[in-house]
Write a structure and sequence with these properties.
919 residues; Immunoglobulin-like; Jelly Rolls; 10-stranded mixed beta sheet; 8-stranded antiparallel beta sheet; 14 helices; 48 strands; globular; EC 3.2.1.40; 6-hairpin_glycosidase_sf
């Protein structure tokens, strides 16, 4: 294939032509179109240069890998040190399994960020005040003249806590992620089209809220460094300093929305808003010079770290606007989104107050309910109009479906109202698709997709309303969906690295992780969350092939293993009194959350079954990670031996025949342990929860001869696990091959679960199932109705009902095994690192048809389900298997055909195939 099929889809650090890359050794990735079945890469060559015209083997002035033998479509940069704030260009060619070379790809580019303290010349500034006020908003601005044509311009910007950057009258960026001031994020913003020769103005509205959920306290401050390169080769640097002017913004002091987040009820006085403040020629004589806190780094901002991911915005128009009385409008945006309302007034009256209320539900008389679904968050807004045309738009997002506008002072049309919805930028919000013959399953898939998308903001948020903090278990769950539904990588990588920092900030060498990070309350852990981290890391690596993050995280994974081993009882092998969550409802293990989602789990035992299973699983994943990194045999043996000890303890002391009990007390001794029952000498719970049985099934700890009985017990329980832990229930059903049970669980609108959410009008996954009644009756009242942690059902639908599994890092190998029952047809697409997997299958009596596309450079085991010998198996018109056995000559791309217990397994390479099993 010489000079044919060049690689495409070039990405640097998981982004297309990114700017502001903070990595000194970024990983470069690519794909190639498969021009024939079975095509795969055997080698590559990458060139990196300072300009596109130097991307030839004889002129590349930065890096030339030479030909490297590898099937991995990625390489970590290992050339000469990259300069800060510079643009680089690169190209790649590959060799296939026939040793034929492709053409060179079209050039890609990336730009580095500012790496070191010495790269910064700017100072931290802020509005002078007698003291900091929670919820304060401030403007800063600066005018300057540019004496030439602008070739390239970049702004490096940060604020504590958030900013909105404007240049020459246009909003150009909103940032950045929350962090601690000794690890403050900043963003790189392209200003090429915003700046021009002549007079220019740049400014920002920034906001500081004090400490809250997901927000360390820090102090108010803003920093910016503009680097302008002219067409004639000159460069000018403009920095924040004492020449910048500042003033208070039009936000009026107001109470906080709730006790968790530090955001105020946004009360905005439109009369004092400085119109034109971000344009050249604005009169800022009444403003005051900014206070210079100090040149970076300065207390409290010790370090600035590049954030190389974005949050994007788009407009959502109302589905309906109802006038519920003479002066009150109720707007329905159709679904719960994370966003800010936008209301345009055509004829404002000076000083006229407009009250607005956002919410999740309506009252019986059609107004917005101010409590139901909001977790008692104050979701009011107040706006004081000025004369004439104007637009109300608050600063901070909330979870919103409905908006009530009281006494707007004029008749409002639908085109005057919108919602600016926000979510983390992803390669394709609709990359993962699913259709089938059950409308409820399709609706649940879409519910989960929507929830995961809008539960991803500047970080994975607990909920966009009450708690915007990033909890480890929530992030683990949402990341599982975003990586598989959207091919998202950068937010997951950021989250994993942030929880790593929580380990080193608060817990090293104890081996724990913070339960929420970053946060205003500092050191807080939940044991179950800590021991879940290795699972999250391993899952992320399998999807992303992000070896750099795997290497970075490995020391902390070892620390988690040591933490587990330290708590193993020598006599019984059980993990007992796992330290963590001291003094609260998380002590020694959370089991599930909120408390009513434990469904009566008996936590009054020092050795809890859920904790023990998660600890054994953590050691198993540590062993897998050690193997991936080719760690010494002694390290792997350490994980394996201690895992085996815990698993033996679980089987000996926590399994009672075909059921697992909720916990036991190892301190009572270890005499006369029966083979199939919990010994009388070891006191144990008499409660056998679904949690205690589903987790051993999901992680493969149940003895083979007991699997069917335990699985039947779990399946018979229906839904008795909460949205936070339900992924383990679905994994248990998948591992024990019960797709029909999963379909029943997903579609039963009369029981707890996603179908009930849809049945009662929900549009976002919830924090807790609502439909059953527990005592006390109000336990589930007013839990969050925008909690994305319950969206993990999407990945189970992909895996169990569509039948697609990634079986090696970066989707080098796949399994495509549609279910034997549960549905009669399904189709969909699953994005992977090597390209989308497309599947379309249908069952008709004893016949089964499957169309599948395996991406370039991947191989797959395709299983056509069926328990008995088929009459025939074909691919297209070509026979693969007859009653008397496989055919001798297989078509191109098909390596083998074998009849197994679960069906006919066909090994294939990249390409598209149409299989049919008859009889």
């Amino acid at each position: 294939m010489a000079d044919a099929s060049p690689p495409t889809g070039l990405r640097t650090a998981y982004a297309v032509d990114p700017i502001g890359i903070g990595e000194r050794e970024p990983t470069l990735r690519w794909r190639a179109p498969a021009d024939r079945r079975g095509a795969s890469q055997t080698g590559f060559r990458v060139l990196v240069a300072t300009s596109p015209d130097r991307l030839t083997p004889d002129r590349a002035d930065v890096w030339d890998t030479g030909k490297r033998l590898s099937e991995r479509p990625a390489v970590r940069y290992d050339g000469p040190a990259l300069d800060a704030g510079e643009a680089y260009h690169w190209t790649v060619r590959v060799w296939d399994d026939r040793e034929e070379a492709s053409a060179w790809s079209e050039p890609a580019s990336f730009e580095t960020a500012l790496f070191d303290e010495d790269d910064w010349a700017a100072s931290w500034i802020r509005r002078p005040t007698d003291g900091f006020e929670r919820g304060e908003f401030s403007y800063v601005r600066r005018e300057f003249e540019l004496d030439g044509e602008v070739e390239r311009a970049r702004a490096y910007v940060s604020a504590s806590h958030q900013y909105a950057l404007s240049v020459n009258g246009e909003a150009v960026d909103r940032g950045q992620s929350f962090s601690y001031p000794d690890f403050q994020y900043y963003k790189t913003v392209a200003l090429d089209d915003a700046l021009s020769a002549g007079d220019n103005a740049v400014g920002a509205l920034y906001n500081w809220n004090g400490e809250g959920q997901g927000r360390p306290e820090a102090e108010p401050g803003f920093i910016a460094q503009l680097v302008v390169e002219f067409a004639d080769g000159r460069e000018r640097v403009i920095t924040t300093d004492g020449e910048w002017q500042t003033r208070p913004a039009e936000w009026v002091s107001a109470p906080l929305r709730n006790e968790e987040i530090a955001e105020p009820v946004e009360t905005i006085d439109g009369r004092v808003a400085p119109r034109g403040w971000d344009e050249a020629g604005f009169d800022d004589a009444a403003w005051e010079p900014a206070e210079v806190v100090g040149a970076h780094p300065t207390d409290p901002w010790e370090r600035l770290v590049a954030q190389d991911r974005e949050r994007v915005r788009h407009r959502v128009d109302p589905e309906s606007v109802e006038r519920v009385d003479d002066d009150t409008y109720v707007v329905d945006f159709g679904k719960v989104y994370a966003g800010v309302p936008n209301v345009r007034f055509e004829n404002g009256n000076d000083g006229h107050r407009v009250n607005l209320l956002a919410g999740y539900r309506l009252t019986a008389d059609g107004r917005v309910d101010d409590t139901e679904g909001t977790q008692w968050t104050d979701m009011r807004y107040e706006y004081l109009q000025r004369e004439g045309a104007q637009t109300f738009r608050p600063f901070n997002y909330l979870g919103i479906r409905y908006l009530q506008i009281e006494d707007p002072g004029e008749a409002l049309d639908a085109d005057q109202i919108s919602l600016v919805a926000t979510h983390n930028e992803v390669p394709d919000a609709n990359a993962g698709t699913f259709e089938c013959d059950d409308e409820t399953v399709e609706a649940v898939f879409e519910l989960a997709r929507h929830s995961a998308l809008y539960g991803s903001q500047e970080q994975f948020v607990d909920t966009p309303t009450r708690e915007k903090g990033q909890f480890l278990a929530d992030a683990f769950n949402v990341s599982a969906v975003t990586t598989r539904a959207f091919r998202e990588r950068r937010l997951s990588r950021q989250a994993i690295r942030e929880f790593l920092r929580s380990h080193y900030r608060y817990w090293a060498p104890e081996g724990r992780f913070n339960a929420v990070y970053p946060n205003g309350d500092g050191k807080r852990d939940i044991p179950d969350f800590t021991v879940t981290f290795p699972q999250w890391l391993h899952e992320y690596y399998r999807e992303s092939d992000d070896r750099a993050t795997l290497e970075r995280a490995y020391p902390a994974v070892r620390a988690v293993a040591d933490y587990v081993v330290e708590h193993v009882d020598d006599e019984t092998g059980l993990v007992a009194n796992l330290s963590g969550g001291e003094g609260g409802p998380y002590h020694e293990g959370i089991v599930d959350w909120p408390p009513e989602m434990r469904y009566g789990y008996d936590r009054d035992w020092p050795a809890r079954t859920t904790v023990n299973v998660l600890c054994a699983n953590a050691l198993a994943r540590a062993a897998d990670i050690a193997a991936e990194l080719d760690r010494p045999d002694a390290e792997r043996a350490y994980y394996d031996e201690n895992r085996a000890a815990i698993e033996t303890g679980i089987d000996d002391h926590l399994r009672d025949g075909d059921r697992y009990v909720d916990g036991a007390d190892p301190s009572a001794g270890d005499d006369q342990i029966g083979e199939d029952e919990v010994s009388d000498a070891l006191p144990a719970s008499d409660h056998s929860s679904q949690h205690a049985n589903a987790l051993p099934l999901a992680t493969g700890l149940v003895p083979d001869e007991r699997v069917d009985d335990v699985a039947e017990r779990v399946a018979a329980g229906g839904m008795r696990m909460g949205p936070m832990m339900v992924r383990w229930l679905l994994d248990a059903l998948d591992r024990t091959d019960r797709p029909a049970t999963m379909v029943d669980l997903v579609t039963d609108a009369d029981a707890d679960g996603w179908a009930n959410i849809l049945d009662v009008g929900g549009t976002f996954t919830w924090e807790t199932w609502h439909c059953r009644t527990l005592e006390p009756a109000d336990e589930r009242h007013n839990r969050s109705e925008s909690h994305a942690m319950g969206a993990t059902v999407l990945t189970s639908i992909q895996r169990t009902l569509l039948g697609v599994r990634v079986t090696s890092p970066g989707a080098g190998t796949l399994e495509i095994a549609p279910p034997a029952d549960g549905l009669d047809e399904a189709s969909g697409r699953v994005p992977t690192e090597r390209g989308p997997v497309a599947v379309d299958w249908e069952r008709d009596g004893d016949a089964f048809a499957l169309d599948v596309t395996v991406p370039w450079n991947a191989t797959a085991t395709v299983v056509l389900p069926g328990e008995r010998q088929p009459d025939a198996v074909t691919e297209g018109e070509t026979p693969l298997l007859r009653v008397d056995g496989p055919v001798a000559d297989l078509p191109e791309g098909i390596e083998s055909v074998e009849l197994g217990e679960d069906g006919v397994a066909v090994e294939v390479g990249a390409g598209s195939y149409s299989f049919e099993r008859r009889g």
